[in-house]
Amino acid sequence: MSDLSTLPAKEESTATVEGRPRTMAADRDLEIEDVTLNLDGDMKGELEEEKEMREDGGGKDPFKNKKVHRVVSKWMLPEKVRRTYLERANCLPPPVFIISISIAELAVFIYYAVWKPQKQWITLDTGILESPFIYSPEKREEAWRFISYMLVHAGVQHILGNLVMQLMLGIPLEMVHKGLRVGLVYLAGVIAGSLASSIFDPLRYLVGASGGVYALMGGYFMNVLVNFREMIPAFGIVRLLIIILIIVSDMGFALYRRFFVPANGSPVSFAAHIAGGFAGMSIGYTVFSCFDKALLKDPRFWIAIAAYSACVLFAVFFNIFLSPAN
């Protein structure tokens, strides 16, 4: 009896012990099954999304022929808006603004340096100071000079530095943000440069497009700074170092033209570099960070415009009533 009574207990105990691993194994099977289902669901969603994009692109990979745009998006945009850019990226209109400005600046330089014997290959000659484009403190009532000075350059190194920088940076920016926004930032830097020069260096002439170039760089680098991990691809640090080297070289040449110009030459103000950079870090940053947003609905844009307008009004007041050049 005792043997018979203990036998079921043992069997029951064995069943219980054996049942535990079975339950754990079943739980593991369920977990693996859930993970597999989740992975299958994610892959299915990605495949469906890719299928929809291929159908929209006529059965082709919509990004296959957009290698240039993919590279531009990595250099110019944070990761979260790159797909939006690639979906609607095209070369219409092409980067007309920055190319047109560059051609105009090169044409004016060739006119004065080659067709007129102005000795403009290294620094300014006294003859070029009579140009109707240059900013002259004695002719500040000719308001167009606050913008047209960007067309005149003080030498080969000066114009090459500006052209390289604005083409290297301006064309990708215009591909992403189009000409209206890039033109707004560029001209804001040009105007800020001439007005700042009229205040901080009121008796000096001003030439070159450095104000506009530094505005583009200021806006771009503020975006890089805010979205550093997303906007710097491989070798991005090297690129930044190269651009910084160009900036240091250009600033060094500007300081030379200002403080170490030969006795028979004319010193040129360098305040446009700094003012253009600040214009870019305010207006430029706001404009370039609103790729997928309505610019006029962004309060940051209006704050930047209000601050910029206040500085412009102060500069106008200074030039009319307080300038030593009066």
TrEMBL record:
Taxonomic superkingdom: Eukaryota
Species, as recorded: Panthera pardus (Leopard)
Cellular component GO terms held in the UniProt record: membrane
UniProt GO MF annotations: serine-type endopeptidase activity
Protein name stated in the entry: Rhomboid-related protein 2
Record's subcellular location: Membrane
Family as reported in the entry's similarity comment: Belongs to the peptidase S54 family.
Record: active site: S210 (nucleophile), H273
Species classification: Eukaryota, Metazoa, Chordata, Craniata, Vertebrata
Regions crossing the membrane: 92-114, 146-171, 183-200, 206-225, 237-256, 268-288, 300-322
Gene3D superfamilies: Rhomboid-like (1.20.1540.10)
Disordered, as annotated region: 1-25, 41-62
Catalytic activity: Cleaves type-1 transmembrane domains using a catalytic dyad composed of serine and histidine that are contributed by different transmembrane domains
Top EC category: hydrolase
Keywords: Hydrolase, Membrane, Protease, Serine protease, Transmembrane, Transmembrane helix
Feature: compositional bias, Basic and acidic residues: 9-25
Peptidase S54 rhomboid domain mapped to chain residues: 141-289
Record function comment: Involved in regulated intramembrane proteolysis and the subsequent release of functional polypeptides from their membrane anchors. Known substrate: EFNB3.
